[in-house]
Each structure stands twice: as structure tokens, then as C-alpha cells.
Amino acid sequence: MSAPPVSHPVPRPAPGGAAAAFARANLLTVAAAALFVLLALAAIFGPAIAPWNPLQTDGASALRPPGSGHWFGTDPLGRDIFSRVLVATRLDLGIALLAVSCSFLAGTALGCAAGYYGGWTDRIVSRLAETIMAFPLFVLAMGVVAALGNTVGNIVLATALINLPFYARLARAEVNVRRNAGYVDAARIAGASDARILAAHLFPNILPPLMVQVSLNMGWAILNAAGLSFIGLGVRPPDPEWGIMVAEGAQFIVSGEWWVALFPGLALMLAVFCFNLLGDGLRDLFDPRRRA
Amino acid sequence: MIAFAARRLLGALPNLAGVMVVTFVLTRALPGDPAAYFAGPAATPEAVAEVRHALGLDRSLAAQFATYAGDLARGNLGHSVTTGQPVLTELAARLPASLELVAAALLFAAAVSIPLGVLAATRPGSWIDHACRALATAGVSLPTFFTGLLLAYVFYFLLGWAPPPTGRLDAAFSPPPAFTGFYLIDSLAAGDPELFAAALAQLVLPALTLGLFVIAPITRMTRASMLGVLAAEFVRTARAAGLSRGTILIRYALRNALLPVLTTLGMVFSFLLGSSILVEKVFAWPGVGSYALEALVASDYAPVQGFVLMMAILYLLLNLAVDLAYVAVDPRVRLQG
Amino acid sequence: MSERSPPLLAVEALSVRFRTPAGDVDAVDRISFEIARGEMLGLVGESGSGKSVTCHALLGILGAGGEVAGGRALFGGMDLIAASEDELAQIRGRELSMIFQNPRAALNPIRRVGRQMEDVLLRHGPVTPGSARGRAIEALRQVRIPDPAARYAAYPFELSGGQCQRVMIALALACSPALLIADEPTTGLDVTTQAAIMELIAELARQRGMATLLITHDLALAGEYCDRIAVMHAGQLVEIAPVDAIFESPRHPYTARLVGAMPRRAAALGDLAAIRGNLPDLRRTDLPGCRFLERCDRAAADCAGPLAWSEPRTGHRVGCRHPL
């Protein structure tokens, strides 16, 4: 007696809408995404909706604790802290976004070239990445800004530089793995140029892990930029930026005026936390094996 | 072992060369004309030209780099414009303060994160596990300088438990006789427990602040490593042989699990060395970081560049130490090369 | 093999279930067997038939997601299944030991084998720290490791597979347990070493009056060393009998196929009869009572019902409604 092949019923997990199940399993990621939207809105519309002019000083209202008129209180020059924190979102996120974009583009291009061509290209790019990583990264950023000049542009450059190796290594590894994949060979036989293969075929395929890296890097870049501002590099007063605001508030915290430093610091924390969660969530989505 | 160390040191030479090239480029990238800067604002064009020649700035880049390398080899990192002292001397004087801070932070971080990681691994999926992971993620989100300020506010201003964040020792005390430069060790060596307590009290908040940021990666790595090791076959054998829970957890599982954790220390040192600048500023800690910051504010660049170079070399040496430690602990690497 | 004295180990209707994201898996379904003092019972079956899982359940070392779903295992007056972790820790390594396959991976890779030996000796005592080293070397000598004093300081990666297995045997036998469970102890070793290891186990068992539960997928190996053989299929015990009976007069269709599939000296390759089909997917919810049903030539309608046991001869039990 030979039984005909029959599919046997296998018990299924508890039923539920796919979206609901997704949200339940990835609650933190969804929350982080919502927070990201909030931050983006603050960055885009901040200056327009701020209740006070962030640059307007008012000596008479200096160092007021949080209250009805000033939700976050005022700083030593009488400026409204809530407005300044809100408006600073644009600068902080903008610097980080610009820096990460630059290091993403440059690092990925270099890494792809290194992974695809191998040989001397690989050696040079690897040596470049290794040299950058031979420094404690924040120290290198500080050195670069100190040497090139104290401007916001150099903050972006320095942050981009120290983030470059991550993208270069990742892109190199991913391209290396896929270099001889079927679709690449097919494109090569069809006569596609190297540039075309890299841009049209390899790049879209290595995008997911790179995106995870971008999200994680955003948090790190924000911290970096804020750290540089805290030690006096980059953004100059009176521009509102979270790092500089914490520095301005530092001297008052030990005498009890906690609000000057707390609110910008919390905003910093929130932004970095948001990007870290997003990055973790993206990583879980794309590569569940590496769930931390 | 010595052979391994020598090989490893040789392997680090290209990195050292790269570091030197970068710092050289940074010294030549100063805004404006370095010769005019060093000659001073009142210098005549001839004086500036003289300074340019004296500094060798009119020679080729390659020749300048050769001089630069030679200077470094002789320990000549230039002079501080504000104090007139050789940069190397000043850095060396302040280095122990920074090292003590970094060492204390690392010890604190390890003492917290390793047990946390072990706890999370022995109860996977439990609320402890989730709490650990949340704590770890929150940890890397904290701006170090902000954490320092918060801790100072809570523990000094509000609770009065910590001393004022004014450096290594309260004004009432004088430093112990210099032996290692570490106040904790030197005060004990001098048999002065009161001084030890005072130095420790000043060290607590800065070390906590610096260490908080690195708790996350160490915990994460310990947890992941422990999870893997606890599922390993040799742990099953140990259980079947009836060894006690403690022996299995510590002597069998943890020792094996710590090996990958050791390799993450390299990245941890990068964070620690970099963030120490911020912590030194917040707590007025008289280390090399605050030295560089003071020089930066005064547009005195030689100390800044000396600082960057010193940090890079320190980082190199620390990574080498981690590699050596790994080899010492893992017999498979030691005996199989 | 005395039939009057109570068995050393009596397993009754033991079931083990694994909870997986894809559903529950009944890896072991109500198996019962006994082992008498000093005898060697072979537990034979294909990979995935639940042999190792059964032993892990006995020792209380089931992995994550696994739990005993029913049954008892009486060992020296104690029910292993109902015992607490502390009670089990008392007898593990002392009264009841286990050795595993892949011996090099089963030893702590960064600890010298002599120290691992001492860990076990000191744990179960009475051994003083001073005499531990000597006792460890002696234990290594008893498992015929050449130059035991030198091997004491070796790491597992410095030893051959056979030597590592000897070390594991030494660890397991350090306290002369009453029962040794040997889970595929010779798989992965070369043939000569296999024979040497089995000889060692058999001799040590004889010397110490120790019972052995030998788990293997190699029926021929079991036939050479065991007193009785229990055959498992897809988590069910299908036949248990003295070794001669298994080979000469198997009663369960599966056992007969296993015996028929054994390479014998005079047989040609074409004589080997493979067993049709594969083990059923244990995640299914519609498994028949006899899990061999879909691979069996003698299947009848009532085979889908619960497994029925009969005892055609004393000491020979078979779980089949239509035995050979």
C-alpha cells in the first residue's frame, strides 16, 4: 500500500491581523517611528511655530524657572528655552543628516569600489579606513575641527570623516559577497559597464544593511556634533543648538537652576534614543538572526 | 608570547605611520599661515620669513614630514604658547589623572555590565532580560556631558552625597607624594586612608559618568556570548557530571563567554578616551583632555595636536594590551599560534 | 540478568514535548522500558527518533522549550521526572552519568582535562584538594590514556577524538555510577577507535557492575555489545527484547526492516533493503496512533488507533497490532 502524497495539517500560530501582529511584536520600533515623525515636524516647522523668538533677549526675565509663560523657563539672557530647544531641532538634525549623508555616499562609493575591484583599490581604501579608526573617534573629530577652523561646515566634515569607515567596511563586505552572484554575471555578459553594474545592480541589493547603519549612525552623529559644540567647537552663540545650550546651562546646574541645561539635554537624549530604536528595529526586520 | 607581542607590535607600525601622517596633515592644515601665527601679530614680513625658514615651512612636504617624524621620535611635541612649557612635559604630568579616570570608569562599567549580561542570559525573555536591553539602549543614547551634569545636580546639589565637581581633590587636601600618579594608589602607599577616601569621593561621579556610556555594548556582548556558551555542548557535559550551578556558570560558562567580550574592549576604549574630554570638562578634572580644551580656547594649537597624537598612541597600546590579554587567556590561540 | 530483583531504572509512559513557534512537537510518546543492574540496554533508532531526548529528560537536562509531558522514571527509589533540580544535582555524576557524542566539543575548550577531572572529583568527594591531582591522573590511567601524567595538563584540542572520549568516560565514571548513559559515544570516531572505546566501556561496566544505556543508530554495534535492545521510531518505542531475539525473530515490521538493512559480510549491496519513506513530521496534528503506519507494508485500519502492546515471549515486548 503506497499512500499518495497528501499535505498534512500543521498547527498555525494564534490568528490576528498581520499589521496588528507586526505592531505588537515591534512596539518599540513603531513608537520610535512616531517619535521620528515628531522630530521631523519640529525640525521643519519649529521656527514657524515657536511661541517666542529664540534669539530675543530680555534681561528682566533672566533665569525664570518653568512656568505658564515660559514652559521650559528662561536662560541667563532671558530667552525662552522652549522655543530655543524647538528651533535647535533643525540645526542638530540637519548637521547630523548632512554628515551622515556625506559619509554614507563617500563611504559606500569607496567601499563598493574596494569590494568590487579588489587589489590596490581595496588596499588603499582599507588603509584609509584603518587609519581613521586608529584614533579614538571623538578625539579625531576634535583635532580636525581645531585644525581646519571653528565652523559648522567643519563640524559636518569631521563627523562625516569619522563615520566614513563604517560605511566603507560594510559596503565592501556586502559587495564582496555579491560580486560573483548570478545576476551580476548576467549583467556583465550583457555588456554592462562596471559603473552600471555597481549602481544599478549591486547598490540596491546592499541597501538594507546600509540603511540600518544609517539609522544607528544618526544617533551617534547627533551625539558627536553636540559633544563638539559642548566643548566650544562649531556652532557659535547665539545660535540655538542643543549641545551649546547644555554648555551654557552647565554652570547653573550646580547652583540650582536646573532647567537651562535639562531641557536641551533631554531633547538630545530623545532624538538619539529615537534613532537608536529605529536602527535596532530596522536591524531586527532585515536580519532577525542578529537580534541583539 | 613575546614573539606574538613583537609580531603584533610590528603589525601596528603601519597604523602608527598612518596616525603620524594624519596628525602631520592636521598641523599643516591650520587656518592662515602657520609661520605668521608663530611669529606673532606684530612681526614684520622678514621676521615671518625667518620664522618660516626656522620652522622648515619653506621646504618640501616630504622633508617637513621627515623633520616632524624626527621630532616625534625625540619626544619633541612643540611648546605651548600660553605656558611656554614643552607640550610633552605637560601632557606627561597630566596623563595619570586621565588614566585613573578611564581605568575607574572601565572597572565600574565591567562590574555592572558583566553581571547584568550574565543575569539577562540566564533568564532569556524574562522581564529582567528586557529591562537589561532597554537599559543598555538607553545607555548609548545618553550624551556623556549631560549625564555628568545630571549626576552632579542630583548627587551634589540635591542630595549632598557627592563633593563639588571641582577636580581630583578637595581644596583642603594636598596630593599624595607622587609614585604612580594615581591618587588612589599613592594615598594608600603613603598610608593615608583619609586622603584615599577624599580622592575616591571625587572620582566617583566622573567615573560613573564616563562608564555609563559603555555599559551597553559590554552588557550586550556578555549576554549574547553567554547565551551561546550556555547552549554549548561542554556546558551540558558539566551539568550531566553534576557540577554545581556556580561552578558551571562562572568557571565553565563565563570564562568562555568573556573571550568575545574582551575583543569588544577595543571599541570601548575608543569611546572612553574620546568621551573623557567631555567628562574632564564637566568635572574640572585636570587631565590631558582639559589641558587640550584650555589650549583650544586660547588658540594654542601645539598642545591640541600633541593631545590628539598621544590619544592615538594610547589607543594603539591599549588595543595591543587587549590582544595580548586575549592570547594569554585563550590557550587555543596561544598554543596553536 | 536477574528477573527477581527490581530494575535499576524503570521508565513508565515517558512523554516529552517541545514547544516551538510552529506548534508543539511530541518528541517522545509514552515510552516504557527497564534496565536491570549490570546489564547493557541498547536504544536504537534513526536520527530524530527521540533517543537522545529521552536521556536528556531522564537527567533533567532538556534544552529550552522542552518539557516532560507525562510519565515516571524510577531510579533507586526516586522518580527522576518529579525530582527537584537539587535532588537531581545530587545524583548526576554520582549515581547516574552520561557521555555524549562529539567528545572534543563536549569538553571545556579552555580548561586542562586534568583540572576538569578534578572538578568532578572534588564535587562528589570525598577527595581532598591535595590528593585530587593524583586521583585525576589515576582516573585517566583507568581509561587507558597513555602517559596520563602528561595528558593531565593537556587541553582538549591537543587530544585526539578517541582520547577526548576516554576523558569523558573517566569524568562520567569518576564516582562509579550505577548507570551510565552513553549517547552515540563512538559516532565520528574511526572504526578502530570505535571498537577500542566500546571495549573500554564494556569492560569498565563489567568490572564495576555498572548498567549501561547505549544509544546508537548502529544496530550492528548494539548487537555486538548489548544484552537487550529497545527499538525506537518517531518518538515511540516499538520493540524491546533480548539481543538474539531482535536479530533472529524481530516482531515489529520496523525492526525487521532495520535488521534487513544491516550490511552483512556475505551480502551484496543489492541485498540491502532500504526502509521506505521518512520519519513523519512530528509537528503534525493528525499523526496516527502508530507513527510507523505510513511506512508500513502491513498497515491496517486499526493501526491508526493508540499503540497496543503485546508480549509474544517473556521479556520480548512489541508495540504493534499486527506483529510479525
Features:
heterotrimer, A: 292 residues, mainly alpha, 10 helices, globular, disordered N terminus, B: mainly alpha, MetI-like fold
Description:
The complex is a heterotrimer of chains A (292), B (337) and C (324). Chain A is mainly α. Chain A has helices at residues 18-25, 27-49, 81-117, 119-133, 137-148, 152-178, 182-189, 194-230, 242-253, 259-286. Chain B has 337 residues and is mainly alpha-helical. Chain B folds into 2 domains: 2-73, no CATH class; 95-329, MetI-like (MetI-like fold), CATH 1.10.3720. Helices cover 77% and strands 0% of the residues of chain B. Chain B has helices at 2-28, 34-39, 45-54, 61-73, 87-122, 127-141, 144-158, 183-189, 193-230, 233-240, 245-282, 288-297, 301-329, 331-336. In chain B, helix 1 (2-28) runs antiparallel to helix 13 (301-329), helix 5 (87-122) runs antiparallel to helix 11 (245-282) and helix 7 (144-158) packs across helix 11. Chain B starts with a helix and ends with a helix. Chain C is α/β, with parallel strands linked by helices and 324 residues long. Helices cover 31% and strands 24% of the residues of chain C. The two termini of chain C are 27 Å apart. Chain C has 2 domains: 7-95 and 177-319, P-loop containing nucleotide triphosphate hydrolases (Rossmann fold, 3-Layer(aba) Sandwich), CATH 3.40.50.300; 96-176. Chains in contact: A-B, A-C, B-C. Chains A and B meet through helix 4, helix 5, helix 8, helix 9 and helix 10 of A and helix 1, helix 6, helix 7, helix 11 and helix 12 of B.
Return Rg of chain A in Å.
Answer: 24 Å
CATH class of the largest domain in chain B: Mainly Alpha
- Tell me about the biggest sheet of chain A? none
Strand content of chain A: under 5%
Structural class of chain A: mainly alpha
Please provide the count of β strands of chain B: 0
Name of the CATH architecture of the largest domain in chain B:
Orthogonal Bundle
Shape of chain A: globular
Q: Element order, helices and strands of chain A? A: HHHHHHHHHH
Termini separation of chain A comes to 51 Å
Uncertain runs of chain B are none
Helix content of chain A: over 70%
